[in-house]
Specification:
Elements: H1 5-21, E1 44-52, E2 67-71, E3 74-76, E4 80-85, E5 95-102, H2 108-122, E6 128-138, E7 146-149, H3 150-159, H4 172-189, E8 195-201, H5 216-233, E9 235-240, H6 276-282, E10 287-288, H7 294-302, E11 307-314, E12 323-331, E13 337-339, E14 343-346
Helix pairs in contact: 1-4, 2-7, 4-5
Length: about 350
């Protein structure tokens, strides 16, 4: 068993303490973002690309010549290419699945249901997992286990006691805490090699729009920092709503779609651009809701680890700090769908 609990416990405990401290500040003030120095980032961009057919099945056997990559509608040279088939990650290109149970934004009874569905997933194939799976609980304490043996993760899960949510049902405390945890999670995973599939089981934090104009620049800086952190850590984010059909008629399951396009300037920034569902879509992941079969939804997310393609290219420099660049990948074969990161924030040359 490979335990990574030390680093993640520190991340999540610190996140919650810091998030609670933020409650004493002005209501609605976003957490200060880490500054992004112009030209400080390497322009090499790595993309994890999932290609499916009309039935949603992954497509194998594609070659580099089948892909065309556009950066702000301009073709860019693919400088490296790797096809991952059958989940055959290597020491040079490791891969991990992380199941995160969000006890901060999820009611106790839904957390209990999610836990049972995770157990059902881990017991598939007698507990033999295709990739290492880690289990994380976002609460006022945390512990994780990383293993290819589902029975080991099950044993860890059975020892975990469910806690009651101690913060309010609404408000900026949950938003700030969630954003802070995600940022620190990305910072930690950026120190680890390979691709990570982060399956965040949660209805999401409060979906808010509108705030004082004076805060837009700070909020935009936070949007850039979260997007950049997920990209550098090679995290594909997935959202599974544990409320299932209970949430099927909620505006939460559809309103986020209005914000799938990135905020390109501070004037366009809105808290909705940091919604869990929006971040999942922009990372190339999935947003799954309105179903009580969480076991199958988890399996659908994890299946992305079986067959995908890793491309890299040198991004274009920005004309100014935090210039948004939209990405698009075209496949020279009809009837195929592509999922990957939707864009990145470029910095100018030094």
């Amino acid at each position: 068993m490979n335990s990574r609990c030390g680093g993640w416990i520190c991340i999540f405990c610190f996140s919650l303490v810091s998030g609670s401290a933020q409650q004493n500040g002005p209501a609605g003030q976003p957490e200060p973002a880490a500054s992004v120095s112009p030209g400080s980032a390497n322009r090499r961009v790595t993309l994890d690309v999932v290609v499916t057919d009309k039935s949603g099945r992954p497509v194998r056997g594609l070659e580099q010549r089948d892909f065309t990559l556009l950066d702000n509608e301009q073709p860019r040279k693919i400088v490296s290419f790797q096809a991952i088939e059958g989940g055959t990650a290597t020491a040079d290109s490791p891969m991990e699945v992380i199941l995160l149970v969000d006890q901060v934004n999820t009611a106790f009874r839904n957390v209990a249901m999610a836990r049972n569905e995770i157990l059902r997933f881990l017991r598939r194939n007698g507990g033999a997992l295709g990739q290492p799976v880690s289990l994380v609980f976002l609460s006022d304490s945390g512990a994780t286990t990383s293993s290819r043996d589902g029975n080991v993760v099950i044993a860890d899960l059975n020892q975990k006691q469910l806690g009651l949510r101690s913060i309010g049902e609404y408000g900026f405390d949950r938003i700030q805490l969630s954003h802070h945890a995600l940022r620190h999670f990305a910072d930690y995973e950026a120190t680890m090699p390979g691709r990570k599939l982060l399956v965040w089981i949660s209805p999401g934090w409060p979906f808010l729009v509108g705030f004082p104009e004076r805060e837009r620049q700070e909020l935009f800086d936070s949007i850039v920092a979260v997007s950049d952190g997920l990209r550098r850590a090679r995290i594909t984010l997935y959202n599974i709503d544990p409320l299932g059909i209970e949430d099927a008629v909620s505006v939460r399951t559809s309103d986020y779609k209005r914000y799938l396009g990135a905020a390109k300037t501070a004037g366009q920034a809105d808290y909705a651009h940091l919604a869990l569902q929006v971040l999942a879509y922009q990372s190339g992941g999935l947003v799954l809701n309105s179903s009580n079969d969480l076991e199958s939804e988890i399996a659908t997310c994890v299946a992305d680890a079986n067959t995908f393609y890793v491309l890299s290219f040198d991004g274009l420099p920005g004309d100014g700090p935090n210039e948004y660049h939209a990405l698009k990948i075209k496949i020279d074969k009809p009837g195929l769908a592509v999922r990957t990161r939707s864009g990145y924030y470029a910095q100018p040359e030094r």
